[in-house]
Amino acid sequence: MAKIHEVEGWIDRVQEEIIDPDREIIDPHHHLWHGPPNPPGVKDSYRYLLEDLWKDTSSGHNIKKTVFIDCGQEYYPDGPEQFKPVGETEFVVEIAGQASSDQSQAQIAGIIGHANMMLGSSVKEVLEQHQEKGNGLFRGIRHAGGWDEDERVKNAHSHPTPHIYLEDKFQEGLQELSSLNMVFDTWHYHNQIQDLTELAKNLPDLVIIHDHFGGPLGIGPYKGKREEIFEQWKEDIHDLSQCKNVYSKLGGLAMPVNGWDWHKREKPATSDEIISEQGSYYLYTLDCFGSERCMFESNFPVDKQSVSYPVIWNAYKKLVKDFEETDKENLFYRTAEKVYKL
User: Fold this and answer.
1) Measuring CA to CA, which residue among 325, 272, 324, 327 is closest to residue 296?
2) Among 40, 218, 294, 336, which residue is least crowded by beta carbons within 10 Å?
3) Using CA atoms, how far apart are residues 229 and 218, in angstroms rounded to an integer?
4) pLDDT tens digits for range 133-149
5) End-to-end CA distance of the chain
6) What is the CB neighbour count within 10 angstroms for residue 88?
7) Domains, the chain, with CATH or none
8) What whole-number distance in Å separates Cα of residue 46 and Cα of residue 341?
9) How far apart (Å, rounded) are the C-alpha atoms in residues 234 and 193?
């Protein structure tokens, strides 16, 4: 039986008037991928290509630019293993080229790909290949570190070790990334934030973007422990924020792994529910990092399992409605523009 969020039209069951529709936005976190055939009555929820991205970015908010983030798509099927992820960069460059034919739509202005940082210093060749194929769009790497010993929590697609951020070879690879003035996007779980803090201290010249609040888990052994996890999470986020080379993406909390189970309901989340249930994560992170080191993200289409694109951006606008204009400009545009050199 289809999951409720996969049913055609489910995501449109919540409609809201667009707030502050003229505000310019950079969406610094989305994916693109082909999806497998789905049964009748089930939405092509695992396909997300240019027309799907544009359907979302043109749904009411003023999305000007986007940044693609690695998701293991279109790797080269043959050749040396370490170079296979470069195929994803070529895949996105082609789509970005298609997008450039219509400047009235959101433009893919940056690419974060993948390279195996465990290659150590030899990863430099892979990074240079990404740059060569990137058509001026390539900005850096995400080597996801999400790992948990419980089999109910899915580990990252890059098959990390339990403490990959602390591995000597991994940090050696990141030094090459830093020397080429590329950025490092992270994806892990809440119990790995301390490892990232240590890494950030060891590599103070590396620009690090902390995705999805560090992935507070709410499934498997973590189900029903939200308050307990939140208290430790606050301590860890505060410590991480002391590393001035780290920036924070605000979003990515509407995934099933976070445990809110909105993907199982008859209707997706509303903007008010996002704020009521998750606003404390946003406001605390903002308090620690400041708007000059924070940026809102959609994490689409992954978060589309729980909330629609216009609704999630409405939530962000409601959350900061009383903020200074400079802070709003940072959160919706300037921080992403600066960090990703757009």
Assistant:
1) 327
2) 40
3) 9
4) 999 999 999 999 999 99
5) 43
6) 24
7) 4-339 (3.20.20.140)
8) 29
9) 10
